[in-house]
Design goal:
Strand content: 5-15%
Shape: globular
Distance between the termini: 10 Å
Helix content: 40-55%
CATH architecture of the largest domain: 3-Layer(aba) Sandwich
Number of domains: 2
Number of helices: 11
Radius of gyration: 16 Å
Largest sheet: 6 strands, parallel
CATH class of the largest domain: Alpha Beta
Length: 208
């Protein structure tokens, strides 16, 4: 049985990282944390970024809820990352089941998939995952689908969650973290193009 290929959303399928950073900086004064330099943030983990911004853990649930709503208000502006449509089509032609696992909201993901006619591509969609809740969400996806998983994501926290759950992960360099940062954490499994991601996904899937 082939594994299900689970995709992160922001920075992996959707070109929404810069929007997220812009919103964080727009409301820094309102919520009492420091603004973030977009380029410098690409070398940091989510935990390190929270430290740089001075965001307290106890504020996370409220902030996550607030920014999910703000991003949903601008969902129509979010673009599909170049090459992703072709990647998804090739995976489907190869008889892979596809899914999404994301911290973003159901409203944003639903609007995005509808905009690009991708609703039928994904048999499993889990939204509103807590910032550091991907480990639990991956285990839940494995139970609910009854399949092994190959995960595709753009962040160090994706790699960490997959390592803790024994899940093969393809890191893509076009999202939040840079290729060199991801390579140090996930050597040999970093894709800089959609074609490279397809090759790595098939390779990892074959090894399960």
């Amino acid at each position: 049985m082939k594994p299900i290929i689970l995709f992160d959303f922001d920075g992996t399928l959707a070109d929404s990282v810069s929007l997220g950073i812009d919103l964080l900086n727009t409301y820094a004064g309102k919520f009492g944390y420091r603004t973030i330099d977009c380029e410098k943030s690409k070398g940091l983990s989510a935990l390190q970024l929270m430290g740089v911004a001075g965001i307290r853990f106890w504020k996370l649930p409220y902030l996550m809820c607030f920014f999910r709503k703000k991003i949903a208000e601008q969902a129509a502006q979010i673009q599909l990352i170049s090459g992703i449509g072709e990647l998804l089509a090739e995976l489907r032609k190869s008889d892979f089941e596809l899914g999404i696992l994301t911290s973003n909201s159901a409203a944003t993901v639903t609007a995005f998939l509808h905009k690009y006619g991708l609703e039928s591509y994904f048999s499993y969609v889990k939204t509103d995952v807590s910032l550091f809740g991907k480990k639990r969400a991956i285990r839940s996806a494995r139970r609910k689908t009854g399949k092994s998983i190959v995960y595709v994501g753009d962040e160090l926290r994706d790699v960490e969650a997959c390592r803790k759950t024994g899940t093969p992960v393809v890191s893509v360099s076009w999202g939040f973290n840079t290729a060199d940062v991801l390579e140090r954490s996930n050597p040999g499994c970093v894709a800089e193009t959609a074609d490279a991601a397809f090759t790595l996904i098939r390779k990892l899937a074959a090894g399960i």
